[in-house]
Amino acid sequence: MKYTIDTPENKAFVSELAEELLRFAVHFPSPGGSAYYLKGDGSPWPEKTLDNYETCRMVHSYCIGKFLGFPGSDELIDAGLKGILGQLRDTTNGGWYTSLNPDGSPLPGKLCYAHAFVILAAASATLAGHPQAEKLLHEALELFDQRYWSEEEGLSRDTWDTTFTQLDDYRGINANMHTVEAFLAVADVTGDSTYRARAGRIIDHVIGWAKDNGWRIPEHYTKDWQPDLECNHDQPDDRFKPYGATPGHGIEWARLITQWALSTYPGQAEKWKPYVDAAESLFCRAVGDGWNADGAPGIVYTTDWNGKPVVHDRMQWTLAEGINSSAVLYRVTGKKQYAGLYRDFLVYLDSTVRDHTCGNWFHQLDQNNQLMDTVWPGKPDIYHALQSMLIPYCTPDLSVAVAIARKQYTL
User: Fold this and answer.
1) pLDDT tens-digit map of 338-390
2) Which of 12, 29, 118, 130 has the most CB atoms within 10 Å of its CB?
3) Spatial contact of 28 and 38, defined as CB atoms under 8 Å apart
């Protein structure tokens, strides 16, 4: 019964895994505060880059840890914020570096993706009462408004050069997905409905594009937001810009759309239901295309535009989002098929993806569920996995850190 949602055994199981994940990553802080990339056993990997988004994810995760009562969370939040407020900040040109080389020098370029995670970390740390977090959140939102958010388009731009003088022509939906996540957190933490409305504008675009494309979301766009369906056809397993449809993103969008709809239209089913219907369409298409698609358990990384697998690798984050969205859709619709998928995903997690020896989850497996390290060597973070142990038990209209902090969860 430990895989069946709402049973005492399941609640004990996911609580155990959440604590295991928090224990795994406690050695992330580098001397400057930025998050070390972590090896398979959780030890630091100093030869790897120090990544802004990983640092922000760790701050967010240990804010959740603080709300759960995990020992040492305050010190880990402090460490991560030290990096965000210090070596990761570009004091000359503004904003935050995407990554630092091991010698401390910044990699070129400024990504919307990374800046969205600064907002998420700052929102969670504000909720946690960190004395520097509210100012950081204000600064991060101001920078985002100036450089990334397009009020005219109702979407976020993607990539600038380091000096913020040249905006790349590429536009991407992944950065916009994490913008929605960050904006919903800001709205929940601050009460500022501006950001919930912005998230809704992005969501309306995504639903329209997906509906016109068989509910497979185009990931890449030209500067005037025309879908570029052949982007990276020759590099299909690119870490951030893979070719084709990404089932894991269709699954993740389903949860975010549901959260936005319920929080925007509380008690107004006639208004939120069309969005939940769209979320179900996205989820069912993605699971239908990606789950057990090639004769072995797991969600394939990418498919072509007809739903045929292209990159068969299993990434841990896709499973985490499958766990999240199946549970959320079950909560909202009451449909037993989603509870069944939640169970199936947990069975696969415990039998194959969870590392019972070293902790955390294997981040990349091949088509035969053997360990791979071409895209995600080691186990760099706990963000997706930790959230997937908690979101299924949180009220679905709140961001996860807010729900945990306000005790709007049933574990």
Assistant:
1) 999 999 999 999 999 999 999 999 999 999 999 999 989 999 999 999 999 99
2) 118
3) yes
Give tens-digit pLDDT for 250-259: 999 999 999 9
User: Rounded CA gap, 245 and 286, in Å?
Assistant: 9
Bridge-based pairing of strands 159-160 and 110-111 is antiparallel
3-state secondary structure 167-206: ECCCEEHHHHHHHHHHHHHHHHHHCCHHHHHHHHHHHHHH
Please answer whether residues 82 and 33 qualify as being in contact, where contact means their C-beta atoms are separated by less than 8 angstroms.
yes
Active-site pick, 60, 130, 363, 384: 384
Q: How far is CA 149 from the centre of its chain?
A: 19
Quick one: pLDDT at residue 240? 78
* Token pair 């239901």: residue: 273
Query: Taking CA 66 as the corner, what is the angle to CA 60 and CA 72, rounded to the nearest 5 degrees?
Result: 105
Average pLDDT, the chain: 97
In SS3 terms, 125-176 reads as HHHCCCCCHHHHHHHHHHHHHHHCEECCCCEECCEECCCCCCECCCEEHHHH
**Residue with tokens 């219907």, as numbered in its chain:** 277
Angle, vertex CA 242, rays to CA 337 and CA 80, nearest 5 = 85
Q: Quote the CA–CA distance of 63 and 68 in Å, as a whole number.
A: 9
Catalytic residue of the set 60, 115, 130, 249: 249
Give yes or no for a contact between 379 and 42, defined as CB atoms under 8 angstroms apart. yes
User: For residue range 90-139, what is the model confidence (pLDDT) as tens digits?
Assistant: 999 999 999 999 999 999 999 999 999 999 999 999 999 999 999 999 99
pTM, whole model, 2 decimals?
0.98
